[in-house]
TrEMBL record:
Stated name of the protein: Nucleoside permease
Bilayer topology annotation: Multi-pass membrane protein
Gene3D superfamilies linked: MFS general substrate transporter like domains
Claim: Membrane is one of the keywords in the record: yes
Keywords (A to Z) from UniProt: Cell membrane, Membrane, Transmembrane, Transmembrane helix, Transport
Major facilitator superfamily (MFS) profile domain mapped to chain residues: 212-421
Major subcellular location class: membrane
Membrane-spanning segments: 7-30, 42-62, 71-89, 95-121, 133-150, 162-179, 213-233, 253-278, 285-303, 309-329, 350-371, 386-406
Pfam families tied to this protein: Nuc_H_symport (PF03825)
Length: 421
């Protein structure tokens, strides 16, 4: 098997692990546990907490002490153990700590997988810019296959979703040790020439002194929160229609994860449209389109249903591709073109920290509290219409404010890079 095929398999399993439970854990939680929405929000915030500190720690370890592919494998093997432990937990507090431990093992593998892939491709003189994106696309395919596998086996509300993810995590952990070696590149002598803050990537925080970067990172946090809202509640929303006789036998209620997987399919397609939109409108307006797409994502959910309104749910899933890709990709390009070359890596890490770290923590906790306080009906059911409209209002406020406070002009260097990609 050539190196590209091996990296495709790695990426497929990497995101299969996440897809097996990320969108369906809400259905498992609310269908099987008599625990609150605020507690579920705390569970989902573990992703953000882990993203704040773990990638930095594993980055230091792989830079100085241990091969990246070995560390990658160890993290997945430990993650498999915690996934197996989750179904055994009997109280929400313990569930929180076990999930936090699982996320501490999983989240850094996202960046480690890139490090391993880049190192393997460069070792064989393969063009990373040209050949890595098609390899990474198979990660999204893995996520979709996991959703379909869990849904078609009727495990969306079952603890089996964690066992499925654990089995693949253990397989990937073992497989990782066979990947090309990716040894530490920063020897001790070189390490001593850097300050402690530089080693930790803290020098990138100086970007907050720039009003433009400070505003950009603030909106990154707010959009990261929006992403957590759809991940946490989308599948659960469709499951709740099963309590209504008019909808319980519809395809969307029987296989909600398959319906939600349209979002990931859309994501792969909108990636292809990004170069055109960036050339035509520039980064600022592409990011604005993302925010408008979030308004549509939530608004369509508010008025859709699994029967006559299924088209709105499907359209919401299609719109997700624009909502997710347009901000994340254009945002990373903004960082790449605007940050100084010596801190671009740290700046990209800071961008991810704001989106997947602080944004995820903020979105998970605040949404859980708001739903418990304002959107629980007298019969104990959730007011999904109100929930999604409030989320849509949140995204609309962000979209209205953004173009007035974010000052940026499409520069020639970026346009040249896009046209010659």
């Amino acid at each position: 098997m050539n190196i590209k095929s091996r990296l495709i398999l790695m990426n497929f399993m990497q995101f299969f692990i996440w897809g097996a439970w990320l969108l369906t854990i809400g259905a498992y939680w609310f269908q099987n546990k008599n625990w609150s929405g605020a507690q579920f929000g705390a569970i989902f915030s573990t992703m953000g907490i882990a993203s704040i500190f773990m990638p930095t720690i594993t980055g230091i370890l792989s830079d100085r002490f241990i091969n990246a592919e070995k560390l990658y494998g160890i993290m997945h093997l430990l993650g498999a153990c915690t996934l197996c432990a989750l179904p055994m937990v009997k109280d929400p507090t313990t569930f929180f700590w076990v999930m936090l431990l699982n996320m501490a093992f999983y989240m850094p593998t996202l960046s480690l997988s890139i490090t391993v892939a880049y190192s393997a491709l460069k070792s064989q003189n393969i063009d990373v810019v040209k050949d890595y994106p098609p390899i990474r696309t198979w990660g999204t395919v893995g996520f979709i296959v996991a959703l379909w596998a869990v849904s078609l086996t009727h495990n969306e509300t079952s603890a089996n979703q964690f066992y499925i993810a654990a089995a693949v995590a253990a397989t990937l952990g073992i497989y990782s040790f066979s990947l090309p070696k990716c040894p530490p590149l920063l020897n001790k002598a070189a390490a001593t020439t850097k300050t402690f803050a530089h080693s930790l990537g803290l020098n990138a925080f100086a970007l907050f002194k720039s009003p433009r970067f400070a505003i950009f990172f603030a909106f990154s946090l707010l959009l990261g929160a929006a992403l957590q809202l759809t991940n946490a509640y989308g599948d659960t929303y469709l499951h709740d229609f099963a309590k209504m006789p008019a909808f319980k036998d519809t395809v969307a209620v029987k296989y909600p994860a398959i319906i939600m997987s349209i979002s990931q399919i859309s994501e792969t397609l909108f990636i292809l449209a990004i170069p055109f939109f960036l050339r035509k409108f520039g980064i600022k307006y592409v990011m604005l389109f993302s925010m408008i797409a979030w308004v549509l994502r939530f608004g369509l959910f508010a008025f859709g249903d699994p029967a006559d309104g299924l088209w709105m749910i499907v359209l919401s899933c299609i719109v997700y591709g624009m909502a997710f890709d347009f901000f994340n990709i254009s945002g990373s390009l903004f960082v790449e073109t605007q940050a100084a070359p010596e801190i671009r890596g740290s700046a990209q890490g800071l961008f991810m920290m704001m989106v997947n770290g602080f944004g995820a923590f903020f979105g998970s906790n605040v949404s859980g509290w708001l739903i418990d306080k304002y959107f629980i009906l007298g019969n104990g059911e959730k007011d999904w219409h109100g929930i999604w409209l409030s989320f849509a209002g949140y995204a609309l406020v962000i979209a209205i404010i953004f173009p007035f406070v974010f000052r940026y002009k499409h520069n020639a260097a970026l346009k040249f890079a896009i046209e010659h990609a």
